[in-house]
Amino acid sequence: MKSFSLFHFLAFFALSFQNSQESDADCLPTEVMVRVFDEYHGWRHKCKNVCPENQYVYRARCYTTCPISTFPQENGFIKYCVNNGEFSCPESICRKESPFCFNDLCLATCPEYTVSYKKSCVLRCPPEGKYVTAYSCTGVCYSGNNKTCTQACPESHPFVFRSTYLNHCLDKCPLFTAVNGTRCNLNCPIERPYLYKGKCVSACPPERPFVSLWNTLFNKIPVCTDRCHEGMGSFQNVCVPVCPSDSPYEYRRECVRQCSEDRPYVKSTPSKRATIYYQQCVKTCPKSEKTWEKAKQCVFECPKTTLLFNKTCVSECPSSFPFNYTKENSEIKHECVKICPPHTYQYNYNCFDSCPANLKYYLSNCTKECPKVSPYISSNNTTCVKSCGKHEVYSGNACAKICPEEHKYIANKRCVKFCADTHDLQQKIKQGILCLKPPCPTNTSHLEGTNQCVERCPQNMLIINGICKNSTSCPDGKYKENSTIGVVCVGKCSSAFYVDGNRRVKKCSSKQVIDGRNCSVNCSSAKPYRFINVTDYENPMTVCVLYCPEGFLIFRNKCIEYDDCINKLRVVYQDGCYDSCPPPTVLDSRTTCSYDTVVLYMTFEAVSFSLAFILFLFILFMCCYKGRLGCKCKPSSAKELEDAATLVDESNEEI
Questions:
Q1: What is the reported pLDDT for 3?
Q2: Cβ distance 327 to 299 under 8 Å?
Q3: Which of 76, 461, 531, 551 is 20 to 30 Å from 109 at the Cα level?
Q4: Which residues, 6+ apart, have CB-to-CB distance to 9 below 8 Å?
Q5: Burial class, 30, CB count within 10 angstroms (exposed 0-12 / middle 13-18 / buried 19+)
Q6: C-beta of residue 278 within 8 angstroms of C-beta of residue 243
C-alpha cells in the first residue's frame, strides 16, 4: 500500500460522499455507473460495462471531466482518470474463486475497461509488463474481461502490433499491416510502397493491378486490389475519388483525357463536383439537355455563338431550316426554323421578336433603309410609315413630335428655318411655331398689335370679331360669353350656353334651375316640375319639365325615382308619390293607392236617389204649373176632367 497525503484522503472522502448522495443504482463491481437523462425521471444513474466514448472512468464511475486531484489518461480504447496516491492491491490477497483484486475487492474477472496484471485489475500496463493480450476478442481490440499484461507476447499471440498507446499481442497481423518477422508494421518503405497480402511490394501484380488507399483507425496505406471500390475511379491504376484536371472525364469508372467514340459526349453534373462522376462520357445526351456537337458536350442552353436545331447546338442552320430565329424571352436564344413564325420580323435569313436597334420595322420585315412607298421614319425611330401621324411633323425623312431648335417653324407640317413672306401670322403649338396665312384658325384669336394667333385671350381682354382686344366691355347689342379661347362678345347665346340675366354662362349655379335656356330661381307654370339630370355625374343640373321621365314620380313638384318613393315608405297613386293615399283612395297593397269600392257604391246610391228625387219634384212642378195653382187641383166640370186626363197622358208620354 502506498502512502498518501491528508489532501488526497479528504478529496477521496468528499468524492465518496458525493457518490453516495447521487447514487440511485447499485452496480456490480465489474460495472461502471453512468449518469443519464430520462425525460420522465430527469437525471438518473445506470450501470454499464464501460463508460461512453467521451467520458472518463474513475473508481467505477463515469465523468465528463476528471475530478480534482486526478489527471486524464487514455490507451486508445478507454479514457480514465489517474491518482498517484491511490491504493494498490497486495499480491496473493485474493482466493482462487475470486482471484482478481480491484478497488480493494476480490473479483472473479476484471472489469471490461481494465486489464489484469499479477492478479490485479489495472487501467494501464506497467513498464515491466507492457504487452497486452486480449483473449476475449479477435484482432486489435479491448473488449471483454480477459485481457492480460505480460513482459512478452505468448506463443498463442506471437505478433506485436504497436498502436498509439499500447503494444498488442495478436495471433496474426491485421490486413492493413505488413508482416516483418513478428512485427506488424503500419507503413511500407518508399522503395516498396504497396501492401499486397501482408507484404510490401514495389508494384502490384496483374491479378490486383489497382492501388487503393486504405484508411483505418491506425494508418493510411496503399493496398493492391483487383478493382476500385464504388464511388472511386482509376487514374493510372490508382483509385481516386475525383478525376484530376488533366484527365477530367469518367469513362467506365476510369479517368480519361478524352471520351472515346462509343461514348463521345461529356455530361457535367455540378452536384457531383466532388466525385468522379462530375464529368461523364455518355453515348447520348439526356432528354433534358441539348447536344453541343462541336464541343461534344451536353448543355442545358446552347452557347450564344451557336443555334439550336433538332436538340443540337450547331454553328449554322442547315438549308432545310435556313432561318435563324432570335428569341427575346426564352431559354432558347437562337433556333433554326423553316420559316419565320407569325408575329416575328424577318431580315435576310434572320427572324426577330423585335427588330434590332439599328434596323427599322416595315410590315413583317426589318430593314436598314425605308422603301419609297413608306419613306418616313416614325417618331419612335423604329417604323417605316407612309405619312406622319396627325400630331406629328416632318423633320427631314423622319416624323417628329417637336421640331428641332434650328428648324422650329412649321409650314405644311414640315419643320423649316423661317416662315415664308406670304405667311403673316404665327401660332405657338407643341410641335413648334406654326406659319399661318390670315385669318387665325378656329379656336384661336388674333392678338391685337402682334402677328400671333393665341389659343386663349388674356383675362383682361375681350375677343371682338376674332381679334383679342384690350377692352373691358362689348359693343352695343352684344354681351360677354365665356369660351375655351377667352371671353367673346356675341349677339346670341350658343346652344352650349345659358342666359343668366345679361350674361352668357356655360352652366347655371347649383342654386338655380334650367328653364329652357335660362337660369332661374323657380320653374315656370309651363314646366312646373324639377328634374335632376345626372348625365354629367360631376355636374348634375336641375331642369324644369312638364312631365317627369319614365321611372320617376311627382313628389312636391319634384321628379323622384320610383325606388326612392318606395324606400322612404311613401305610396304611389297614378304618376305621383304621396305621404298617404289621397281621398277617396285607399291603400290596396304595400305601396299603391286605388279607389275604395264601398265608398264608390254609397256615392252611386246617393247620386241615384238624388236624381230620382229631383225628377219627382220636376214632375210635380210641371203638373201643378199646368193646372190651377192651389192646394187642391180638382176639375169642376166634365170638360175640366177631360183636360186633366189629357194632361196626365201627355205627362206620361214625357216621362
A1: 41
A2: no
A3: 76
A4: none
A5: buried
A6: yes
Q: pLDDT digit string (tens) for 519-566? A: 899 999 999 999 987 655 456 788 999 988 888 899 999 999 888 888
Contact 313, 334 (CB under 8 A): no
Q: At what angle do helices 638-654 and 597-626 cross, to 10 degrees?
A: 150
d(CA 588, CA 592): 6
Domain ranges (residues) in the chain = 6-154, 370-438, 442-506, 553-595
Rounded Cα–Cα distance for residues 444 and 535 (Å):
29
Rounded distance, CA 60 to CA 29, Å? 8
Question: How would residue 191 be classed by pLDDT, with cut points 50, 70 and 90?
Answer: very high
Single-letter residue type at 367: T
Spell out the long-range contacts of 137-144 with Cβ–Cβ below 8 A and sequence spacing 24 or more.
138/171, 139/170, 139/174, 140/168, 140/170, 140/174, 140/218, 141/77, 142/75, 142/76, 142/77, 142/78, 143/112, 144/112
Q: How many CB atoms lie within 10 A of CB 16?
A: 11
Q: How high is the pLDDT of residue 535?
A: 57
| Nine-digit cell string for 476 | 352695343
The 10s digit of each residue's pLDDT in 375-392 is: 999 888 789 999 998 889
Which position has the grid cell 433556333?
335
The Cα angle at residue 378 between residues 375 and 379, in degrees rounded to 5: 140
Expressed in angstroms, the distance from the first to the final Cα of the chain is 169
CA distance 144 to 163: 19
Half-sphere exposure of 653 (CA within 13 A, CB side): 6
Q: Which three cell numbers stand for residue 561?
A: 325615382
Burial (CB < 10 A; 0-12, 13-18, 19+), residue 161, is buried
54 HSE (CA, 13 A, CB side): 2
Calpha distance 596→606 (Å, rounded):
16
Half-sphere exposure of 6 (CA within 13 A, CB side): 0
